[in-house]
Amino acid sequence: MDILAQITQIVTLFGYWGIAFLMLLENVIPPIPSELIMPLAGFAVARGDMEMGWVIVSGTVGSVLGGLVWYYIGKFLGLNRICNLADRYGKWLGISSKEVLGTQKWFSQRGGYWAIGLGRLVPGVRTYISVPAGVTSMPLGNFLLYSTLGSVVWITLLTLAGFWLGESYDRVSAVLGPLSKLVIALIVAGLVGRLLYQWWQRSRPST
Fold first, then answer.
1. Residues 115, 52, 17, 169: is their CA dihedral positive or negative?
2. Where are the alpha helices (DSSP H) in 136-207?
3. What is the mean pLDDT of residues 22-34?
4. Is the separation of the CB atoms in 133 and 143 below 8 Å?
5. Domain boundaries, the chain
């Protein structure tokens, strides 16, 4: 049985609970794709088998709970342990403890909050964006707020896409691919802009 058939069976048998469970797994054990789960639910809404509001709520709950798992993994490992791992295995991973510390410093500032929300819109990134939030001990309330906002947007887009595409809901990933690239571009632009601003502040002559 392929993954689409398994997802369909779980959603058919368990309804909203099945959607929440699958979205939790999607955030913990990739590559279970949200681009199949939520559009399938949107198609079920189009057929009159489910209600749009409850589909979005159940998908969001599962997504945020899955993000919490990675948040606490980052919090449990801690910055020092991750830096040690980066120093030991960084040459294979392409990362150093200096880069980890730089990320920690940036993420501890206000910019880390919107990164959580935008990161939830990017496949691949959305699963692990919670880790630095845990490492930097981002306040749980802030993490939940921004993670929920990003998850609601992503899940609503996927559900509506499945609703509009109907039986072609499995093509949603191709439709939303350009959106993911746009979000990545916004994140990169924000990071570059912040670095340039900090460089400009440092280079200004002191008065």
1. negative
2. 140-165, 172-203
3. 78
4. yes
5. 3-203
